[in-house]
Amino acid sequence: MEATAHLRHLRMAPRKISVVVSLVRGMPVSRALSTLQFTRRAAARPVKKLIESAMANATDTSKGAVDVDKLWVKMISVDQGATARRYLPRAMGRATRVNKKTSHIHVVLSDEAQKGRK
Hints:
The protein is an alpha+beta fold. The chain has one domain: CATH 3.90.470.10. The chain contains three helices and three strands; from the N terminus they run E-H-H-H-E-E. The chain has a three-stranded antiparallel beta sheet with strand order 1-3-2. The model has no long low-confidence stretch (mean pLDDT 94).
């Protein structure tokens, strides 16, 4: 059984989130949550909440039949979202552009046996 959750338009750059996401890819959910709890990065909190949301989706869709202790992070990915463009005034009447990037995070949890994992 697989459960998914998506977080869209997170106001954080995808490069910063992908560092945290790569820490928990392929881990059991309990170990991933404890890793994120003690990770000192701003992206750890929204990723942790997203994994908890996917766990809640798994119990809800299976009507409590799934064992949350056997879930693991099958797939987690970060994509770039829309970029908000702002301008700052500079010297001699010029303006420079500031890109405020957003991210989309997608997670899939599974309770099936991990194939090909060392």
